[in-house]
Amino acid sequence: MGVWYVTSRKHSLRFGGRVKMAPTHVLRCCQRGLAWIPVIFIALVVCWSYYAYVVELCIFTIPSIAEKIIYMVFFHLSFVMFVWSYWKTIFTRPANPSKEFCLPKAEKEQYVKEERPESQQEILWRATANLPLYTRTGAGAIRYCDRCQVIKPDRCHHCSACDMCVLKMDHHCPWVNNCVGFSNYKFFILFLCYSLVYCLFIAATVLQYFIKFWTNELPDTHAKFHVLFLFFVAAMFCISILSLFSYHLWLVGKNRSTIEAFRAPVFRTGSDKNGFSLGFGKNIAQVFGDERKFWLLPIFTSQGDGLTFPSRLVNIDPEQPTVSLQPEANKSIEDVPASPLSESQNHLLGNEQHANNVTEHLENDSSWE
Ligand SMILES: [Zn+2]
Ligand SMILES: [Zn+2]
């Protein structure tokens, strides 16, 4: 099948003065539009739950003023935190590999021309000599994304839905229409936490009115149906979120992404599912940061830059080019510093703007089949 090389920003072809849209571009636009349906569904459910709780329950059903006020205050607190963390999970752009992980132009051309995998690997080995890479493919090769044309940093994976390489990719979540990864993992955990709090609060406070409607102790008004549904929907969401939330808390404690839980990362010394685990406390700090006062706020406080991560296995590998970045060999796992990078590695952060632009740049240059 032939490949169409389409110029940047204009995924259209001109025929006789008329603009004909490339079918793949139209298809992609449709897919992007449809991908928002789960988010819109959640937003509609949340809007209705707000109306049902505030208007139908608090204003029309609850007789006591004091009870109304207490419920409204706690409801709005959990509502704001839930919406804030949901918003941040949806709209935080996934972090991509920085320019250091792109092959230089000459090597890239050489890599594309080269057909033998061994020779391609040789090019990659040369290019990665000074990069802090500790993980490999299952076959022991350098992890390279042919689609994005970048060397994948540790824990980075290509997301086919976002069509980009995402740092410390956890999974692509349709309910937030975004990739959950290094840049928004904390927000995602908080989103699960606050949605659970929101649903639990609603279910707990609605329960007595739910029973009263059921036993005909309250007048048979239209509020009855809102209260009945409010309880059912909140209880249903509680059950489903609880399992997901507990699973992700367990992953945070182990310093594992969902992808790594299914397929253990492969280091030069072999695969190890606990390769990135630094001990419970430090694993928590990797995602939530050192300062506890920010743990419950959807503000980015995760440690590191998403490109390199401290590993307990790295010490026993004699081939490490950047061993100074990693924990010292004579330290126990508990002594391992939680901060993954020394100052010398911060050059990787230097061109943040470029890092964010890598995907844009690649997209502009990309081909469409
Ligand atoms: Zn990629
Ligand atoms: Zn994605």
Molecular structure report:
The structure is a single chain. The chain is mainly α and 369 residues long. The protein has a domain at 32-93 and 184-240. Helix content is 48%, strand content 9%. It has 11 helices and 13 strands. It has helices at residues 23-34, 37-59, 65-91, 105-113, 117-127, 185-214, 223-254, 258-262, 280-288, 347-350, 352-365; strands at residues 4-5, 12-15, 18-21, 135-136, 144-145, 150-151, 157-159, 164-166, 171-173, 178-180, 266-267, 270-271, 367-368. The strands form 6 sheets. A 3-stranded antiparallel β-sheet has the order 4-11-12, with no helix packed on it. A two-stranded antiparallel sheet has the order 1-13. Strand 5 and strand 6 form a beta hairpin. Helix 3 runs antiparallel to helix 6 (185-214), helix 4 (105-113) packs antiparallel against helix 5 (117-127) and helix 6 packs antiparallel against helix 7. The protein is elongated and about 80 Å long. Residues 320-369 are annotated as: Disordered. The chain crosses the membrane at residues 34-53, 69-87, 187-211, 223-247. Belongs to the DHHC palmitoyltransferase family. Its EC number is 2.3.1.225. It is a multi-pass membrane protein.
